[in-house]
Amino acid sequence: MMHISFFLLVIITGGVSCKVCSYQDVLDYLNLTVDTSMFKLTRPVLDHTHTTVVKTDLILYAILSVVEKTQTFVPFVWVSVQWKDERISWDPAQFCGITEMSVPKSLLWKPDLFIYEMVEKDDSPQNPYVLVTHDGTVFYDEDMRVISTCKMNVHKFPFDTQECSLSIGSAIHCVKEMQIFPFSNSSRATQFSREIMKTQGEWEFLKMSVESSNISLHDRGWELLIYKVTIKRRPLHHVINFLLPILFFLILDLASFFIADHRGEKLGFKVTVLLAISVLLLILHDILPAMSNKTPLIATYCIVIFALMLLSLLETILVTYLIDKDSKDELSLCDSGEDKNNQMKTKNCSTEIKKQTGSSCSYRVCESEKQHELLTVDDEVNYSSHSRDTNTLQLILDELKKLQNMMRQYFGPRDERVKSVFWAKRIDRLFFIFYVLTVLLFLSFICMEWYS
To answer: For 139-156, what is each residue's pLDDT tens digit?
Structure first.
């Protein structure tokens, strides 16, 4: 009894008015228990004309993935929400200086905020508590893995920059009942996100902008808070695994012009390179989305290179055909020339044999002549030798005339008939110049478009 009196005396003399130092007594004072539903059924205002002001902050923790095929943006964000409950207040001096406490979030009303672009429910661990201050201000923080839609422009893939929006708003309360304001401006939100960024992966975070917007439907208006996240793709992976291989195949196709045309290796080489480009086009089909506002530059890059290589293959087929055609003509000409030469040689040999036989016979007849006619026989022999030489020269002249007529028949004048191999070499040379100039101009254009 004496101890109790002494304790009360110390309290009175010391001027301390606090007799309770537990959170439960604050809850009892507020009548905030599990069975009490008055704090969570309706909007926390004492007068329904009062507007509930909600302050929101969104910080980007990480960029988990960006899927172009489904146009899905998956960030990991930290969302902080602050509002005031007019039915909650206490004097910290009466409760040992307690200015704030945490209570289960199921005990209090919470603004029905959601992200409009969110397509799947968040399955990450939830924060079960809210922080309540002595003046009725309520703070609620939550980490979320947001799976949201994002309208992407892949025209400059893989050197593209995307801007994805996360719109936070209420589904029930209109602008007269609840207003949403950003707790941090664009520069602060960008700075905080860069400081706490955990991972970015393929994408690089550039900035975050915050703006307010209103939507109206059936004479009711809602206020939205829009966070626009700007990210830039890191293109090294796609450059090494896709763009450079196609460029290397194009260089190989250019180098194939130095392979001899009369061999079959050039044609087979070009077909192999063209098939390799076709495989890379199948990989591109799996990367890019099916629908896009503009044709992606990388698709133009692949299609034009594929078309150039196809045109190069057709040119090689034409040149090979002309060379083969010329080779067949020369082969048939040689065969016909050899046949005629053989026939001429046979005739010449028969003529010579006849002449030699005739001369030998005359010689034998001359030997049976009388001795006194020897001078006459010698004159006749000399005349016969002179006549044989004249006939041989005449035969050579006839053969030359026949050969000249044969050349005119098969080849003719240069202005009238030109060999196919001449046209093949000329076409190949002109097409190579055209091919190199077209490739250089196209690559310059595509690089300017990518980096503009």
So the answer is: 999 999 999 999 888 889
Instruction: Tell me which residue of 149, 167, 143 sits closest to 67, measured CA to CA.
Output: 149
Tell me if 46 sits within 8 A of 174, measured CB to CB. Answer: no
What is the CA angle 159-160-162, rounded to 5? 155
CATH of 17-30+46-234, one of 2.70.170.10, 3.30.750.24, 3.40.1000.70, 3.40.630.30: 2.70.170.10
Percent with pLDDT over 90 in the chain: 42
Torsion sign (Cα): 368, 373, 378, 384 = negative
- Does the pTM exceed 0.90? no
Across-strand partners of 52?
178
User: Rounded CA gap, 386 and 382, in Å?
Assistant: 6
CA 16 – CA 231 distance, rounded (Å): 58
CA-based angle 18:23:29, to the nearest 5?
A: 70
335 vs 226, higher pLDDT: 226
Q: Which residues contact 376 (CB under 8 A, 6 or more apart)?
A: none
